């Protein structure tokens, strides 16, 4: 069961690694409108799968008001804070602060007596992220404090949401309702704050569909299933690899140049993962205590 859950989470992380690449193709679409489109596509995933599987009618999905309200608030709040943060601070700094969430999640899911171990591993993982983003280019100026606080809010929201998923036993199929709620909320925000004047080409449409099926939609189903069934500490340590995967995908398609910083990041991420997931032998500990 844990291997299957870990596999779901790994696929979700791989999808998020492709986010920057696909987002470049859809960069002309206003942020919240793009979010609404992607989550609307995501909301159709489970109903369409039911049809493909040959069911005569789409399975009626149970609606848990409390769980869905938390889910919609976290997903919409996370993306809203991120988009607004980018308007108040440089993207590198926003990204680095935002990637505090794997460390926070590692602390939340760590068993008693292993929080220091998770914290040390998380710090090393964060250093690996900073190497990928370009440590020399970071500028934490006080004039960007609003953006930094919003980025920190992103990290806290996503870590809490992930922890909540790992402890909530609702079915992953309920995510369809949640995605629909996020799509409607993002659409309302877009109508109030954004201009819809942009060029819609076939390449943009393809990027939107792939985003909805993958990193900004389908990945959330997999993340939900992964946290419910997999090894939470292992998953949290792998989460640091998202910006590294993003850099690798971008380099493969010629957007960035492969550099030694990526190699160093890989090494640091391996060290972080080993530290977070290292398990001492309980039998040996108990025998020493005696």
Overall mean pLDDT score? 82
Shape assignment:
globular
Along the chain, the helix and strand elements come as: HHHHHHHHHHHHHHHH
Write down the domain tally. Answer: 1
What level of helicity do the residues show? over 70%
By DSSP (H or I, 4+ residues per run), the number of helices equals 16
Q: How many whole angstroms does the radius of gyration measure?
A: 20 Å
Largest sheet: none
Describe the structure.
The protein is mainly α and 290 residues long. The protein has one domain. The chain is 73% helix and 0% strand. The chain has helices spanning 2-17, 19-25, 31-43, 45-52, 65-86, 91-98, 101-109, 115-133, 145-167, 175-193, 202-213, 218-229, 232-238, 242-252, 260-277, 282-289. Helix 1 packs parallel to helix 13. 43% of the residues are buried. Mean pLDDT is 82; it is low at 281-290.
